[in-house]
């Protein structure tokens, strides 16, 4: 078991950052576990955690399947009640040539359902995407807790 | 029977004419492929009328696992078995809908008992229809 897989006391953990490479399906599982831990650090509720971990899973799979692999930076940032979990997925794959299509439900250039990007956007509180054809894609998302 | 104890396989149990499998681990692609093969073979071999998939241990169902559940359900249907997904956590249900996956064509029940009841009712209704025809 990895050390960060423990459950720190809600809202009390230190700010942290960790980079996880995304090269295999097992790495996608690792990303899910680390994001769940980060959400526990900021004291997120079960549904808030489930949303963020699901979004992370979709984005990590995109990085793997469409970006040819890459990495994610998982960070807990901010202070006190304004803390949030930020994820930055980076790949150096072919990039996205038609962004508005890529963000449409049901559109996929691969064998997927086409829900990855559009679904992740709905599940996170902040969503930003930048892509340069031939150079790669960066997706940045963030979530925080509404709990008092 | 020995293959049910292999670490990379999900065990499939038979209860009457139902097959029961519990997904407890973080599924990887390879395991999903094996599961599809194993399950299709078991349905054909046992003439099972129903497949119960217990996902109460899963705290995340993304579109990848959602698609796998829909696929398994479709394969079972063609082999004349009904699939019922049981034990979905409330947070997972909410997230699936927000993600845009409504799992159409996949039946669900709150627990294994209710799932079993659903399958029993359906297979007896099916038998009656067959009898009337």
From TrEMBL, chain A:
InterPro entries: HATPase_C_sf, HATPase_dom. Residues 1-12 have a biased composition (Basic and acidic residues). Residues 1-25 are annotated as: Disordered. Residues 47-147 form the Histidine kinase/HSP90-like ATPase domain. This is Anti-sigma regulatory factor. It comes from Skermanella aerolata. The gene is rsbT.
TrEMBL record, chain B:
Transmembrane segments: none annotated. Residues 8-119 form the STAS domain. InterPro entries: Bact_StressResp_Reg (IPR051932), STAS_dom (IPR002645), STAS_dom_sf (IPR036513). CDD domains: STAS_RsbR_RsbS_like (cd07041). PANTHER family: RSBT ANTAGONIST PROTEIN RSBS, RSBT ANTAGONIST PROTEIN RSBS-RELATED. This is Anti-sigma factor antagonist.
